[in-house]
UniProtKB/TrEMBL annotation:
Record bears the keyword Calcium: no
SUPFAM superfamilies associated with the record: GntR ligand-binding domain-like, Winged helix' DNA-binding domain
Domain HTH gntR-type: 15-82
Key words, A-Z: DNA-binding, Transcription, Transcription regulation
Organism: Undibacterium griseum
Pfam family, any one: FCD
Region forming the signal peptide: none
Record InterPro entries: GntR_C, TF_FadR/GntR_C, Tscrpt_reg_HTH_GntR, WH-like_DNA-bd_sf, WH_DNA-bd_sf
Lineage, uppermost ranks: Bacteria, Pseudomonadati, Pseudomonadota, Betaproteobacteria, Burkholderiales
Protein name stated in the entry: GntR family transcriptional regulator
Length: 228
């Protein structure tokens, strides 16, 4: 996911190292290897990733700005909590940004980007049908990466990326309440509209995807409240 923000010019070695560190830690947080409330222990992260202290600290600073980790008095940095009750507001905000991004991509995507968006969506559906969660998440990230590049609106992408990450973590935590195939089909409808350059259909399919995420969230909130 974080690769979405790193897709412009070739990166210097230090920047690439920080991005690699960010991707590695983000994946640990999104997939709940680092659970909400868990302390961020730099030495352990350095050992797990094999990366240097400087890129690690740069990555942690970015995560703090994205809301994935938070400073706590006398505890240092900890993984932020998943706030189910506030997640509906997050999706409400994400809907506006996604609608802008998707309709812009429908107008601006080139032939290669359209092909890559379609391929990613098809991979999502194939992974969903065989219940391969890792492949699904990888294809989802690739889908967003290309869509965000194609939209040509860096400010919208910068605003939506933290929301997308939080949505992924929420979905991973409560996936038993959702329908992974339905989510993949919603992405495929977005991909088809963008690939065909149909702006109105792109808007409709974007809202359909957000409707799915909203419905999923409403189902998950009781589980979150009960601690399941």
């Amino acid at each position: 996911m974080s690769a979405i923000l790193n897709e412009q010019a070739p990166q210097a070695p230090k920047q690439r190292a920080a991005n690699i560190a960010y991707d590695a830690i983000e994946n640990m947080i999104v997939t709940l290897q680092l659970k909400p409330g868990a302390p961020i222990i730099e030495a352990e992260l350095l050992e797990k990733t094999g990366l240097g202290r400087t890129p690690m600290r740069e990555a942690l600073m970015r995560m703090s700005s994205n809301g994935l980790i938070r400073p706590m008095p006398r505890r240092g940095l900890v993984v932020s909590q998943i706030l189910a009750a506030e997640h509906l507001q997050l999706i409400e905000t994400r809907r506006v940004l996604e609608n802008l991004i998707v309709t812009s991509a429908a107008q601006r995507a080139d032939a290669i980007q359209k092909q890559e968006i379609m391929q990613s969506a098809e991979k999502m559906l194939a992974a969903a049908k065989r219940h391969d969660l890792n492949a699904f998440m990888e294809a989802d990230q690739s889908f967003d990466h290309t869509l965000h590049t194609a939209c040509g609106n860096a400010s919208a992408v910068a605003a939506v990326v933290p929301l997308v990450i939080q949505c992924r973590r929420f979905w991973y935590a409560y996936q038993h309440e959702g329908d992974i195939e339905e989510g993949a089909r919603c992405h495929l409808l977005v991909a088809k509209a963008v690939a065909r350059g149909h702006v109105e259909q792109a808007l409709k399919s974007s809202n359909g995807l957000m409707d799915y995420l909203e419905s999923f969230t409403r189902k998950a909130i009781p589980s979150a409240a009960s601690g399941n």
